[in-house]
Design a protein that fits this description.
3-stranded antiparallel sheet, alpha+beta, 2 helices, Nucleotide Exchange Factor Grpe, Chain A, domain 2
Length: 157
């Protein structure tokens, strides 16, 4: 084989090696893009699930609130009645279902007021420097670190 033929073979081999390197790099980029698309899709699905859960819980909260209010105003003479126990059981069942799907009740009484989680609807005077929640007027709830409904509270200084 002549020097010219060997040189041409070497040149062809180098060109093929460059082409293989380019194709390998392009394949790696495509794989990375596909993985990013899958990851974004999973994130969107998770976000959608959370959004749907939040929406359903938001619709159920007024009914839960009314059951809890009813239990707070039960006359003492029927407090031990089976009907009252049944309503109390329904409220506990709601609380369990909410907890099972990741819904958390926002802490209120005794906590520092935080407008990210609480909505102050009344304020008692005081001589302190910090706003502390003295009473919960309506519970607030969170799901996945996001507020579904702010807690309505009474605050004192």
């Amino acid at each position: 084989m002549s020097k010219k033929a060997k040189s041409e073979d070497r040149q062809i081999a180098e060109e093929l090696a460059k082409e293989v390197a380019q194709l390998t790099e392009a394949l790696q980029r495509e794989r990375a893009d596909a993985m990013n698309i899958r990851r974004r899709h999973e994130e969107q699905i998770t976000s959608l699930r959370t959004s749907v859960k939040s929406s359903v819980v938001r619709e159920l909260l007024p009914a839960i609130d009314n059951l809890e209010r009813a239990l707070k105003h039960v006359p003492k003479d029927i407090a031990k009645h089976d009907y009252v126990k049944g309503v109390s059981g329904v409220v506990k069942q709601f609380e369990k279902v909410l907890a099972d799907i990741g819904v958390e009740r926002i802490k209120t009484v005794g906590e520092h007021f935080d407008p990210e989680f609480h909505e102050a609807v009344a304020m008692d005077g005081g001589d302190g420097h910090h706003e502390i929640i003295s009473e919960e007027l309506q519970p607030g709830y969170m799901l996945g670190g996001e507020v579904i409904r702010h807690a309505m509270v009474k605050v004192k200084k």
